[in-house]
Amino acid sequence: MNSFESVGWSIWITVASLGGVVFCLYVLFSQLKGQPKKGETISETGHTWDGISEYDTPLPRWWVSMFLILTIIALLYLALYPGLGSFNGLLNTNQAKEVLQAQEEIEERVQPVYQKYASMPITEIAQDDEARAIGQRLFLNNCAQCHGSDAQGSPSFPNLADDSWLWGGEPDQVLHTITEGRRGIMPAHNAMMNPLQAADLAQYVRSLSNLAHDQTRVVPGKKLYDQDCVACHAADGTGNQMLGAPNLTDDSWLYGSSEDSIVYGILNGRDNQMPAQKAVLSPEQIRLLAGWVWGLSNTEQQ
C-alpha cells in the first residue's frame, strides 16, 4: 500500500474536503443572518473615497441561496462518488478500476491481431506489410520520443536505421534489448589521466575512424588506449557487443565525434539506459516492434 492509499492519507483528504464544505456553509449562513429588514437603512462602513461612501450591504439572498444549493450538490456528489479519501461512494464507482477494465477490454479485442504473429519469426515479420505497419505504430507510440519518428536517434539515443548496433543487431538480440532493456556504462578515467592525456587519447580514437586528427598526438594516445581501453573496445577498436562497448572504427557516434565530446566521455564517463518494455508492452507487441526495428537496417530482406 503506497502513501496515497494509506489510512492516514485517506483521513486527511476526507477532513480537508468536508472541512472546506463546512467552512463555505458557515460563510453563506453568516450572510443570511445579515439580511436587512424591509425599510431598514443600510449603515455605512465609514470608508469614503472621492466622496463615495462604502455601504455595509450584505450579499443578495438569491446569490447566497444559489451557492447553498451548489454546496448541497457538492455534498451529494461526495456521498455518491469517490472524493473522500479511499471511500468509493454509495454508487461504489472507481475510475482507476474502470480505466483498467476498459484497457483489458481493448486488449481482448486486439489480442487476435497480435496472436497471429506470436510465433512468426522476426525476419518474416519484417517482410509482412501488416505486421510492419503495426510495429511502426507501436514504435511511434512508445519509442519515437527518444529515437525520433524516423528512428535515426539523436545525441545519446542510438540510430536504429543504420547497421551499427551496440548490443548486436540479430533478431533475437533486438528482441532481448526491447524486452529487458540495456544499460551502457563508460567508466570515468579522470582519476587515472589528466585532460591533456585524455585529449591525446581522443586524437587516437578519432584516427581509428579516419577523422581529422593530430598525428603527433596519436602515438601517446595509442599507448593510453592500449593501457586503459582495450579490455572493452578491443585492440583494434571494434568494440564488444557483449559489453555494449561501441565500435570506434565506424562513423557512428552516440555522443558526437568532436575532441571535446570524446574527452568529456573519457574523463567523466557515460551512463545510458534503455528502459525495459516488458512491463509496458505484451510479448506479441514487443515481437512486432522488434520485427519493424530489425527491418530498418535489413531492407534487402524485405
In short:
The chain is mainly α and 302 residues long.
Describe the structure.
The protein has 302 residues and is mainly α. It has 3 domains: 1-34 and 54-96, no CATH class; 107-181 and 275-301, Cytochrome c-like domain (Cytochrome Bc1 Complex, Chain D, domain 2, Orthogonal Bundle); 185-274, Cytochrome Bc1 Complex, Chain D, domain 2, CATH 1.10.760. It is built from 12 helices and 4 strands; from the N terminus they run αββααααααβααααβα. The protein has a two-stranded antiparallel sheet with strand order 1-2. It has a two-stranded antiparallel ribbon with strand order 3-4. It starts with 6 loop residues before the first helix and ends in a 6-residue tail after the last helix.
Please describe the structure with a list of short key phrases separated by commas or semicolons.
302 residues; mainly alpha; Cytochrome Bc1 Complex, Chain D, domain 2; 3 domains; two-stranded antiparallel ribbon; 4 strands; 7% strand
Itemize the secondary structure elements and their pairings:
Elements lengths: L6 H27 L10 E6 L2 E4 L5 H20 L14 H21 L6 H4 L3 H14 L1 H4 L23 H10 L1 E5 L8 H14 L6 H14 L1 H4 L25 H10 L1 E5 L8 H14 L6
Antiparallel strand pairs: 1-2, 3-4
CATH topology of the largest domain: Cytochrome Bc1 Complex, Chain D, domain 2
CATH superfamily heading of the largest domain? Cytochrome c-like domain
How many separate domains make up the residues?
Answer: 3
How much helix is in the residues?
40-55%
Give the helix tally. Answer: 12
| Extended strand count | 4
Instruction: Describe the sheet with the most strands.
Output: 2 strands, antiparallel
Overall geometry = elongated
Distance between the termini: 49 Å
Question: Uncertain segments of ≥5 residues (pLDDT<50)?
Answer: none
Q: Strands of the biggest beta sheet: in what spatial order?
A: 1-2
CATH architecture of the largest domain: Orthogonal Bundle
Mean pLDDT across all amino acids: 89
Share of β-strand residues: 5-15%
